[in-house]
Structures are given as structure tokens and as C-alpha cells.
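Incident log, support desk, overnight shift.

02:14 A customer reports that sequence design results differ from what the structure should imply. Their input is reproduced verbatim below. On-call engineer (initials T.W.) acknowledged and began investigating.
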């Protein structure tokens, strides 16, 4: 995928209602390309939309029943044929005819009687351009898929980190685990309720609500810094003990900020945890 190379013989569809013209073009192209022929617009559209579509189309304009302009319009309206390059072949040499054909989406315009070297040169040029476009399209699709994969990986790492830290808090206090999960549910319900509030609604985007919900378990990680005799005390805390217990939120915030400082950057989703 490093260069726009091709290995298969490219397919050229020639559309013309005159048998002699089809024979002439077939003879000219057969040594370099796979040639498909159509003597009317309907047949051309059927070939173009098949499972093995042409790489490029040489399309006559003046044909009975359905002229080349109409064929071109229909090609451009279908997603599976809209990107096939089309070169018009016609005896019409007026500038207005050429302008109209190019406006419809044709990539080039060759007047009849055709010059074989010109036909071959134009085909070579436009097929090379098509290969380059296809290469870039494939490359972009690969990069988009890679971005999605990396994003999902980052989200998974965030989730695992949050679960690991909240589990660490649970090891100090069995009640903390249930409290963390309850708090997460309460926060989700509160965010849902506040979405309709004129002040808070604009801030509670789906992305922000998701981040708040995910980081909610981090609100108690500071409990790892609270002494056992206070954290695990079965009875009521004294005033002094309660003051120490309240520091767990600050300890958690400081731990997150310290980690960000070592990282050298603020982590956007952690702003809700802080």
C-alpha cells in the first residue's frame, strides 16, 4: 500500500452505436487493456454497474434512445458507478458541447475521427489518475480504521485504569466498592435530570456525561491515604477524625494532578474526576 501500483489488466468500456467504431476501438485497445463493448446506453449502464465494472469508459454522445449525456447523468447518480472516469468520444466539436460534457462530470473530450495516439495517451493519463485516487482512497480508509482502533484502545485503557484505581480503594474498605457503584448511578441520573436545565444543559453533552460517568469511581481513590483506624472505624467519627476523612477527596485530586504533572500534560477526561 505504499505506491499506487496495479497488477490486473485494466478494463475499458467502449460505448458506441456504430459497429465499425466499436471494432476500430477494440482493435486499437485490445493489446493493452481488457475491452468491453456496448452498442447502446442501457447495455453500458448494465456493464458499468456489474460486479466487475470498467476502470474507464469511452462514451459516444450521439446515440439513439439514450444519448451519451443521459448515460453520463445516470452513471453519476449511482454510488457504484459515480467515480468511474468517462471520456466522451464525439463528432461534435463545438466548445459548448465540450463544456456541457465536462460539467456533467466527464474527465476528457476526444473528437471524431479519433487519433489512435491521442486515445492511447488520454487513456494512459486518466487511468494513472484513477489509480492514484483509488490508492489515496484506500489509504484514507486504512487510516480512518486505524484511528478508530487506536481511539477504542485509548478508551479501553482509560476504563481499565479507572477500574484498577477504584478497585485499589475497595481493598481498603469493603463498603467503598458498593458506594462507588451507587455514586456512579446517582451521577448518571443527576446528569440526565440536569440536561434540561438552562444553565447546566449546554455543558452536559453526551461526551461530557459519558466522561463524568466513567470517572465517577475515582472520587474515592484518596481513601488509600486515610489511616485504617479512621477509615475502618465501626462507630461514629470524632470531629477531628471526620476532618481527616474529608481530606480523601483532596488526596485523590492531588494524586491525579501529580500524575498529570509527570506526564507533562492535562488529560481532558480527568478534569471531571478532579
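02:41 Re-run completed on a clean worker. Output:
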Amino acid at each position: 500500500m505504499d505506491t499506487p501500483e496495479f497488477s490486473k489488466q485494466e478494463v475499458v468500456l467502449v460505448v458506441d452505436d456504430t459497429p465499425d467504431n466499436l471494432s476500430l476501438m477494440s482493435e486499437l485497445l485490445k493489446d493493452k487493456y481488457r475491452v468491453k463493448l456496448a452498442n447502446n446506453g442501457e447495455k453500458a449502464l448494465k456493464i458499468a454497474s456489474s460486479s466487475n465494472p470498467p476502470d474507464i469508459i469511452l462514451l459516444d454522445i450521439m446515440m439513439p434512445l439514450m444519448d451519451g449525456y443521459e448515460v453520463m447523468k445516470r452513471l453519476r447518480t449511482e454510488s457504484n458507478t459515480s467515480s468511474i472516469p468517462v471520456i466522451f468520444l464525439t463528432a461534435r466539436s463545438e466548445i459548448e458541447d465540450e463544456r456541457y460534457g465536462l460539467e456533467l462530470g466527464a474527465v476528457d473530450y476526444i473528437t471524431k475521427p479519433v487519433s489512435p495516439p491521442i486515445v492511447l495517451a488520454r487513456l494512459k493519463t486518466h487511468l494513472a489518475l484513477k489509480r492514484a485516487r483509488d490508492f489515496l482512497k484506500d489509504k484514507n480508509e486504512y487510516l480512518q480504521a486505524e484511528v478508530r482502533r487506536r481511539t477504542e484502545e485509548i478508551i479501553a485503557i482509560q476504563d481499565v485504569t479507572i477500574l484498577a484505581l477504584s478497585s485499589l480503594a475497595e481493598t481498603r474498605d469493603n463498603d467503598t466498592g458498593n458506594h462507588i457503584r451507587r455514586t456512579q448511578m446517582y451521577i448518571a441520573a443527576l446528569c440526565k435530570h440536569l440536561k434540561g436545565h438552562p444553565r447546566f444543559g449546554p455543558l452536559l453533552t453526551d461526551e461530557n456525561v459519558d466522561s463524568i460517568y466513567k470517572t465517577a469511581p475515582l472520587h474515592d481513590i484518596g481513601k488509600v491515604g486515610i489511616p485504617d483506624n479512621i477509615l475502618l472505624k465501626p462507630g461514629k467519627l470524632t470531629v477531628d477524625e471526620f476532618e481527616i476523612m474529608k481530606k480523601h477527596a483532596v488526596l485523590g485530586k492531588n494524586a491525579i494532578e501529580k500524575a498529570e504533572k509527570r506526564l507533562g500534560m492535562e488529560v481532558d477526561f480527568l478534569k471531571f474526576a478532579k
